[in-house]
Predict the 3D structure of the following.
Amino acid sequence: MINEFLKRLNPDFSNIDEVYNELLTIYNPDNINTSELTFINSVKFDNVEHSENVPKLSMYLGAKSVIDWQDIDYYNHYIKTGSFGFSMLHSFNSKTQKQKEIVGKTIEYQEFIGTLNTYKIRYDYIFNKLDKDAKKEFKFDFCDQLENLKSKQTETKFKEAINDLIKSVNGASQQNDNNNTDEVKQKKEFELKENNFDKVQPDKVINHFKQLVDNGYITQLNFEIFIETVFEKNQIVTSKIEIIKQNSKSRVRKIFYNYYETYSTQKYGAQKKYIELLSDNFTGFDYTSLTTNFSK
């Protein structure tokens, strides 16, 4: 087929779009949209008579494959399955240690970052094609799968890369919401209905611990889980919440200590309860250590 392609082209390739569409229609008369990638691949693997003209044609077909249709494939996949496919990252995680050592740590990390960037592009493409309600569900699915992938990482830099993508997605989604003034006005703020942990007024609890989100220490989702589980239900979170900002543990500890200092009505013997508030619900905080440095 590539020979037919080359024969139809003007010497300066000025009619390449016209020839491409003509051949596409001929070879895929029933369903052009779902067959275009197959068509492109079949063009590439034919015998070539005029090899000197192949590079420019190859670049053209490559651009068609990657830019025009690859992301649409992922959109159709999401519409059909209701889930964003993370096959490349799952494949990356399934590599044996020996395979990773052969690749090398630097290349391994670069490959990982490149894959995340590719998924962000595909996420944006799909997100922009969905309606308001579908956008929310899609973002939740995407971030939930990222959180799952993050839990499988053993190196901090890989976890941080995933966290950066999650924050980027959440930030873009928030900006999208803010662009619609009426929606912002109607949006209901997260609230604590009743404080069954220590009876401090719910709005004071929210305002104090909102620092955790405002300073980028935890996500809004984990903040809401923490408040609802600990203060409203008076329980411990199922999975400890991870602090996502590096070198911030002392500042997080200070937030909890200041809450204890400000709102605990019984200072003597009550500190244990507020140390456990931190150590039982967040990663990286040891109860024994906190008994000696809680106020520092």
User: Anything to note?
Assistant: The chain is about 70% helix and 0% strand.
